[in-house]
Amino acid sequence: MKVKTSLHRTATVLAGALIGLAGLTVAATPASAHASSVKGDSVCNAATGKRDITWTLTNDWGGDATVSDLALIPGVKAETAEHNELKNGVVIPRRSHHVDGKAVFTQSAEGDITDASISFTAHWDDEYSDRNNSYKLRFDGPCAPPPPTCVSPDKAKFHHEFGVENGKSTATVTLDEGIKLCEGEPVTLVSYVAPRPEFSVPQFVFDHASAVITTDKPRADLEVKVPDCNTQVDLFFGSEKDIIAEITANGPRYGDKKLGSPNGIGSRSVGKPGWFNGGSKACQQPAVATVPQCDGTLTVNLSNNGEISRYPIDFAVKTGDVTKTVTVGAGKAESITIPAGSGDVTIGAEGLETKTYQWQNPGDCALPTVVVENDCDTVAITVQNPKGVTPVTAKITYGEETKTATVASGASRKTTFTLGKEKHATVEFPGLDVESIKATLGKVDCGGEGGGGGLPVTGAAAGSIAGGAAALLAIGGGLFFLARRRKVTFTA
Q: What are phi and psi of 363, to 5 degrees?
């Protein structure tokens, strides 16, 4: 009986001890279960070039927790999908069914930040607080913005072909494959007339063509005419408004705008150098026209007005041993007069074949007149030469006798012969391109025979003309008018 009683007492004491320990455990549990935490994560948003940061706040207690003492770096607003802003007073939901309560907030920060952090205190309704809530993110480098879908022309790449031959220049400029342009890139091909086959000034535009390269039209084909003389041709990035109309000594240049340049915007295009200098002759177009005058002078017209004439021309005009230089400006003309009797004149210029010119009777000058007078003893032939013409030489034949008479301008000269049996006289003008005159003598009263003076006769038709003109003569003579003809020489 005593043994059983001792065992019973021992069991009772142990049971009480276990119950006491269990009571201590239950009493300590509420204090250790209040807890909160926070975690952060970040990704680089390739679409915006910014960092998208996510903050996850966790509550593992059965009551809601309220946020206070919030510190958020960077200070960019963070919010949930429902646009609840992360700030002091925001609630972290309670834990339920062994699942921690969570509040998730996101913020978008500039891509160049180096770190982000958060800290706060969580409060529960039972006056318990958890101040041990913080998290920091560090970033290795900036979040770069996405590459653009197109590039500006200054960042684009091209390739080209360029050449000059057969009186023209052609060029093809192509945007490199895979490149999209945000805006069009103009390109221009232009040719010039130049004073020398190497680079020299001034130069003047001869022809030009422009086009705009775009993503939809990635290739430009250009063609211009090239002058048949000294020239320069340039292929450059730019539009028609960028063309230099006249390249002068101190004026603007295309410089590194030319495609194929080693530097500058022209270096964006790969290909042979997009420029050319050459030619085999001057771009002037000199011309000479001579007009002989009736007084023996020679008018020489010098011109410099061809399609490609852009520079002055020095004409060398030589008469005898004297050479004179006559300068004619572009688009101009000059006239000089070679005096009568100066002889041949020789004219030459750059781009013009040297040539010798002679005065020739133009054929439309006033012609000399002839008056025939005869009586019973003599035959008189008078040659009258008009004013404003060259001296004329007359070859007069009557019977077996021939005499020569030279008559100055505006003068007259009489030649006499002894009357013979011949009834006509012949007058020739070797220096004039006219037919000789056969003049029939007039009838005179020498011992009873009546008669008149000489009759006018022209060329071979002397016999038929004489009868019709007899009534018009006031004296025994006649006027002889010679045929005329004009000759003009032009050399270009």
A: 90, -5
Based on the domain organization, do 274 and 166 belong to the same domain? yes
Q: Which two tokens stand for residue 481?
A: 């008018």
Q: Clarify whether residues 161 and 249 are in a common domain.
A: yes
Q: Where are the beta strands (DSSP E) in 87-181?
A: 91-92, 101-109, 115-123, 129-138, 158-165, 168-175
Sequence-separated (6 or more) residues with CB below 8 Å from residue 383: 368, 369, 370, 392, 394, 396, 405, 407, 412, 413, 415, 427
C-alpha to C-alpha distance for 244 and 249, rounded to whole angstroms = 13
In which domain, by residue range, is 387 found?
A: 369-472
Q: What is the CATH number of the domain that holds 440?
A: 2.60.40
Of 243, 278, 313, the residue at which a domain comes to its end is 278
Counting every residue, how long is the chain?
Answer: 492
pLDDT digits (tens, 9 = 90+) for 143-179: 887 677 899 999 999 999 999 999 999 999 999 999 9
Mean pLDDT of 48-66: 92
CATH number at residue 336: 2.60.40.2950
Q: Which pTM was predicted?
A: 0.53
Q: What is the pLDDT of residue 31?
A: 45
Q: Do 69 and 121 have their domain in common?
A: yes
As a whole number of angstroms, the distance between CA 384 and CA 389 comes to 12
Residue 379's nearest CA partner among 279, 471, 477, 263 is 477
- 163 and 271 both lie in a single domain: yes
Report helix, strand or coil for 308. Answer: coil
In angstroms, rounded to a whole number, what is the distance separating the alpha carbons of residues 392 and 370? 12
Q: In this predicted model, what pLDDT tens digit does every residue of 431-482 receive, in sequence order?
A: 888 889 888 898 888 875 444 444 444 333 233 233 333 333 333 333 344 4
Query: Sign (positive/negative) of CA torsion 462, 463, 465, 470?
Result: positive
What is the tally of structural domains in the chain?
A: 5
Residues 6+ apart with CB under 8 A from 483: 434, 435, 459
